Structures are given as C-alpha cells and as structure tokens.
Amino acid sequence: MKHLNKYVLLLFFVAASAICNAQHVNFITNGNLRTVFDLAKAQHKKIFLELYDKDCHTCNLFEPIFKDKKVAQYFNDHFVSYKLPITAIETNAFLAKQKTGPLSTPTFLFYTEDVKLIYKVSLTDKQNTAEIVLQQAKKAVSK
C-alpha cells in the first residue's frame, strides 16, 4: 500500500507537469528534494537545481530566461527542475551531505536520478541569455 501511495503521488506530479503550460521551466513547487529525485527516477530524467536567493539581483535576471520557449522546452524535456533557496535548512543540509559548496548564487546544479552531481556552474549577470543557459544544460545532459 505504501508503494501504491508513492506511485499515485508521482503520477499526480507527472500529470500536473503535462498540464502545465510549457512556456516556462516547470519548477516543482510542491514537495521537497526527495519528491524531486523520486519524480526524476520515475520519469528517467536528470535533475536541475537552481541555487538562488530571492534578494539576489543576478538570480532575478534569470527569471525571464526560464520563460524562454526554447529553454523551457529543453529543460522540461530533460530535467525535473527545482529551486533551492540558499537560506533554507533543507538546502544547507543537502549541500553539506553532498559536500558541495560554498556556492554563490545563482548556481546551477545538475544531478542524476541517483543523486550524483554531474555538473555545476555559477553564472553571472552577463551570462543571462537563453543561449548560455541552454549551452550549460546541454553540457549536463551530455555527461
């Protein structure tokens, strides 16, 4: 029964992702990192984690990029995406366990469904273009 509930929950997230408008990167907003990795495993996708701070000017410059049609399509096809606020306890515990850090914001972290870091990159305000973000995502997919 426990496994059935888990799969029903995953099915809900898959359906919700399919229903969402593909005009933006579909960041998971309900759940936690465990939810993200379970969903990625169920969908056979890699994980994209954006380490950000809501008050970070550079982080906010990337928001329009995540609404770019080409970026959205690529990310939604290849990744389960999740935003990691740098000040959250969950974020700091995860980064410490992964021995990843210290990191600046924004940092893009790409993982396998088995929680193995495959690529990370910190971007600047001058790198907030769809082309650069796609280039970084494609590097992660190729690993």
User: Which regions contain 5 or more consecutive residues with pLDDT less than 50?
Assistant: none
Query: Looking at CATH, which topology would you report?
Result: Glutaredoxin
CATH class categorisation: Alpha Beta
Give me the side-by-side strand order of the main sheet.
2-1-3-4
Largest sheet properties: 4 strands, mixed
Give the helices and strands, then pairings.
Blueprint: H1 2-19, H2 33-43, E1 46-52, H3 57-61, H4 69-78, E2 79-85, H5 89-98, E3 107-111, E4 117-122, H6 130-142
Parallel strand pairs: 1-2
Antiparallel strand pairs: 1-3, 3-4
Helix pairs in contact: 4-6
What does it look like?
This protein is of the alpha+beta class and 143 residues long. Helices cover 47% and strands 17% of the residues. Strands 2-1-3-4 form a four-stranded mixed beta sheet, sandwiched between helices. A hairpin with a 5-residue loop joins strand 3 and strand 4.
